[in-house]
Amino acid sequence: MYRTLLRKLSLLSLLSIICLVPGCKGPQRSGIVIGSKFFTEQVILSELLAQHIEARTGIPVERKTNLGGTLLVHKALLAGQIDLYIEYTGTALTAVLNEPPDRSSASTDQGPSNPVYQRVKQLYAQRFDLEVAEPLGFENTFAMVIRGEDAENLHVRTISDVVRYAPGWRVGVGYEFLERPDGFHGWADLYHLHFAQTPKVMDLGLIYRALVDRQVDLVAGNSTDGLIDALNLVALEDDRHYFPRYDAVPIIRKSTLDRFPQLGPTLGELGGKISQSDIRKMNYAVDVLHTDPATVVHEFRSAKGL
């Protein structure tokens, strides 16, 4: 009996080792897994996808939120650890595909006809076998944010206005913005900004509090953050159009679409349904009012008739 147990344990150990080898496939999931990056808006959007898919198709959905930054979540998608998440077209173009920013698209309309969207859709299919669904309806671009009192007292409204003050200002950024091809270095070069210190790398959840507490004087946030208005902050105009468009789009594995063909039309129902105002309100409800994301999404879907 003891030898039989040992043989069984040895077999289990061998199977565990084999399944660590790339290409080993476990039992196929009966549902799908939706992931997100590690900030509020991503958690809200993953919950929106999950609720909509569950309501429309009955497919079981597992949520894996706050997984990490762009490249980590992208790798999880390629590895099959998740089936679907929300990306932003400008981020996909620069951080994932390593293409130069297409700034000619900055002032064009969002939607399927946008050149950044078209380029991302084409290359994601060719390189990764991933499907890029229709944009949700809003853009979340980088926002260079300062205190409202500084904007008023110093008459700063655009990024170009920062040039005269930059030598005395401290900057706070998330780690991705410091390293990305569409991030800090290219931005500072285009605007001829020379700061006294290298940027402080901060958690995105703490960046606005650091600004309010005067630990820094300018931060790289997101244009849809609900805290910008709540904390009397000002997002500066990108008057030289440094940033490309960052339209929010669902990214899904084509193998998942093959298993669940109904997902394509279901995701299509969300195309163009979320405005800039909508997502700001939802971010505000979670970040400022501390409402549960699932409740916020449920109320939004009810109001939109989704």
Give an overview of the whole structure:
With 306 residues, the chain is α/β, with parallel strands linked by helices. It has two domains: 173 residues, Periplasmic binding protein-like II (D-Maltodextrin-Binding Protein, domain 2), CATH 3.40.190; 94 residues, D-Maltodextrin-Binding Protein, domain 2 (3-Layer(aba) Sandwich), CATH 3.40.190. It contains 14 helices and ten strands. It has a five-stranded mixed β-sheet. Strands 3-10-4 form a three-stranded antiparallel β-sheet. Strand 1, helix 2 and strand 2 form a beta-alpha-beta unit. The relative contact order is 0.17.
Question: Helix and strand layout, with pairings?
Answer:
Elements: H1 2-18, E1 32-35, H2 40-57, E2 61-64, H3 70-78, E3 84-88, H4 89-96, H5 115-128, E4 130-132, E5 142-147, H6 148-153, E6 171-173, H7 175-179, H8 184-191, E7 200-201, H9 207-212, E8 218-222, H10 227-230, E9 233-235, E10 248-253, H11 254-259, H12 263-268, H13 276-287, H14 293-304
Parallel strand pairs: 1-2, 6-7, 6-8
Antiparallel strand pairs: 3-10, 4-10, 5-8, 5-9
Helix pairs in contact: 2-14, 4-5, 13-14
Based on the model shown, name its key terms.
306 residues, alpha/beta, D-Maltodextrin-Binding Protein, domain 2, 2 domains, 3-stranded antiparallel sheet, 14 helices, globular
